[in-house]
Design goal:
Layout (H helix, E strand, L loop, with lengths): L8 E3 L8 H14 L2 E5 L5 H30 L20 E8 L12 H29 L5 H6 L8 E9 L11 E4 L5 E6 L6 E5 L2 E4 L7 E5 L1 H6 L9 E3 L7 E9 L5 E2 L18 E2 H11 L5 H6 L4 H8 L13 H6 L1
Parallel strand pairs: 1-2
Antiparallel strand pairs: 2-9, 3-4, 4-11, 5-10, 6-9, 6-11, 7-8, 7-10, 12-13
Helix pairs in contact: 1-3, 2-3
Bound molecules: 2-oxoglutaric acid.
């Protein structure tokens, strides 16, 4: 049973006036102690959010539901014991997903099965989320004592000068065996800052805090924010990525639209020198090229992050170049088996 801790909710409207110092403190506390928080009055219009939600739910019904149901019946045919292509229930995610890439180049026009209205709404929504992610990164800079723009610059690779920005659109349909299958298995996110527009009626997202699972409460028109592995490295562990999961629900179809604002593939990631204390220098987080991190992440998403960081210390980077030849989609985390089957 999740304990009654109070999940941080930050009203961004308070950043404009005399309440700014208190709101900034709350943000710092959320970043240091939770790695997760929810924002209200974030500036994205509620009409646009409603439109994106309606179009996403229509799209699932029209295009994806039948495919999901076919997969689901195969997945559970042996009581979840390994029916679907020999995949065990513990290696499944009960989600139907598709990805949209925005930066460095959008692939919205190429995605099949989206109508023009949905494409237009997603393009507008992505533009608003990109601006919000950059605004949040600057607020984090302020709290970390870094100059404005430091984190955004750290995310830009040297050649293309662009971060990677992409959206994972998911439905978590009702699951007859939530005791057997997860909605999405526990993991940390690989990248930078993640903005989630989640269903306000069907719950399921939980984060791991002090050894206990805590519900992320569905709140209408809010955006849930969480920090990824790269911000943990850049801040030398001052802020941490946090393990989270989606619990499959017996009733209701949960919508989630997660947008990942990540470094460019060729960005070199390393701790901010000013955040590495002299006495901690030997144990500092490593330096690596983001694309190399992603090559490792796609093979280890559902495993602990620490061995990934360790692998890049000392000569680990060299070995990884040879061992992992997995192509990633522009820094997007790969999802579980259901994604592979249905994408
Ligand atoms: O759907 C959600 O609420 C979380 C999604 C997520 O954690 C992921 O796709 O990495």
């Amino acid at each position: 049973m999740a304990p009654a801790l109070s999940f941080p909710i930050i009203d961004m409207g308070r950043l404009a006036g005399e309440e700014r110092p208190a709101a900034m403190d709350m943000l710092r506390d959320a970043c240091e102690k939770w790695g997760f928080f929810q924002i209200l009055n974030h500036g994205i219009s509620t009409e646009l959010m409603d439109e994106v939600e309606r179009l996403t739910k229509d799209h699932y019904k029209r295009v994806r539901e039948q495919r999901f149901l076919e997969f689901a019946s195969r997945a559970l045919q042996d009581g979840g014991g390994g029916g679907a292509r020999g995949v065990k229930a513990e290696n499944l995610d009960w989600e139907s997903t598709f990805f949209v890439r925005h930066l460095p180049e959008s692939n919205l026009a190429e995605l099949p099965d989206l109508d023009d209205g949905y494409r237009r709404a997603m393009r507008r929504f992505a533009g608003e989320l990109e601006a919000l992610a950059e605004r949040l990164l600057d607020l984090l800079c302020e709290n970390l004592g870094l100059e404005k723009g430091y984190l955004a610059r750290a995310f830009r690779g040297p050649s293309k000068g662009s971060p990677t920005f992409a959206t994972k659109v998911s439905s978590y349909p009702p699951c007859p065996r939530p005791d057997l299958v997860s909605g999405l298995r526990a993991h940390t996110d690989a990248g930078g800052i993640i903005l989630l527009f989640q269903d306000d009626r069907v719950a399921g997202l939980q984060l791991l805090k002090d050894g206990a699972w805590v519900d992320v409460p569905p709140t209408r028109h809010s955006i849930v924010v969480n920090l990824g592995d790269q911000l943990e490295v850049i801040t030398n562990g001052r802020y941490k990525s946090v393990v989270h999961r989606v619990v499959a629900q017996p009733d209701g179809n949960r919508m989630s639209i997660a947008s990942f604002y990540n470094p460019g593939g060729d960005a070199v990631i390393f701790p901010v020198p000013a955040l590495v204390k002299a006495e901690e220098a030997a144990a500092a987080y490593p330096r690596f090229v983001f694309e190399d991190y992603m090559k490792l992440y796609v093979r280890s998403k559902f495993e602990a992050k620490e061995p990934r960081f360790e692998a890049f210390k000392s000569d680990g980077e060299l070995q990884l170049h040879h061992r992992h030849r997995v192509t990633t989609r522009q820094g997007m985390p790969e999802s579980g088996v259901l994604y592979v089957s249905l994408a």
